[in-house]
Design a protein that fits this description.
The chain is α+β, with helices and mostly antiparallel strands and about 400 residues long. The protein has ten helices and nine strands. Helices cover about 50% and strands about 15% of the residues. The strands form three sheets. A four-stranded antiparallel beta sheet has the order 2-3-7-6, covered by helices on one side. Strands 1-4-5 form a three-stranded mixed beta sheet, with helices on one face. The protein has a two-stranded antiparallel sheet with strand order 8-9.
Length: about 400
Amino acid sequence: MTKHSVRPGSVTVDPRDFLAVDALLDDEERLIRDTVRQFVGDRILPGIADWFEEGIFPIELAKEMGSLGLLGMHLDGYGCAGTSNVAYGLACTELEAGDSGTRSFVSVQGSLCMFPIRAFGSEEQKQEWLPQMAAGEAIGCFGLTEADAGSDPSSMRTTARRDGGDWVINGSKMWITNGSVSQLAIVWAKTDEGVRGFIVPRDTKGFTVNDIHQKLSLRASVTSELVLDDVRLPADAVLPEVVGMRGPLSCLNEARFGIMYGAIGAARACYEAALDYAGERMMFDKPIASFQLIQRQLVEMLVKVNRGMLVAMHVGRMKDAGTLDPSHISFGKLDNVRMALEVAREARSVLGANGITLEYPVIRHMNNLESVLTYEGTNEIHTLILGNKITGIPAFG
């Protein structure tokens, strides 16, 4: 026996961290993960079933998240925490273990709204908005998707034209997270020079927001339509440092990174609920965890959750090292979200009829993940991105 060998049975295996991913984290990453996990346990899980059923997002959580440094946490300066991308991803995992709506709120605020101001904004815009957004005192929304321009955002109909020293925007945006609770919107519009991004304060004349109701997914999240009717903005409302689709697409890539990690949190919550339930639910005088078919289901969930976490960790390390291609994030978003949905459905089966109630997290996660599968690039779009990358042949359109 060499000094590196380990006797069979001498290593403790944790069914909730089977591949010991915890050992891949440094002390700061572990502290951030544990802090967010405690926040979710203390502030999200006790109320989430009621919020989901009532269709509300408790906006007071924004400042609490800000005080923890979660908003724009992977950005530098202007009140932002400046963590690693992996640390941000781990926070997203824990937030989505609570609910996809919670993680969506943080993703939209940090990756879709604060990121473009930090990356493409003027110094004045950064100074004005980023500190209050990092503190949760100002909430943002991201206006890109339109009713007839989802997977092809370049076909947007929203326009911005110059009028003297001002800009005038007309159009509408659909499926906008945080819409009616926001103080500003990052709106993307076609101009004579190409697609430009604009900071639109919520109280601007001609800017109205209509919430979308009767959702059966992401119910604990605000989803809205933005309507811009001759919205007049000063010249300094435009993000000066980007023209073209590179602007909004880079924001989407930031958000997709968080989703890649977040989906694992939802999957893990479903797997752990099924594992606990199977050990307690008695059938034929023994726990259902003793049956072969149930063990097969639990193992399938275990493998998918651990595989997804390893993918996310590897992609996260690549992002921190600067060796990442956007298609790597498409790989993670594509596989981790569909994996999470499969885990949720498997867990629902293990829980039987109890799996459709909000007493357990499974049906809530399963419904949410149907939206996560679609937003920030559908499963099909990410498939085509990867197909283009490996063949060199674009199959879009």
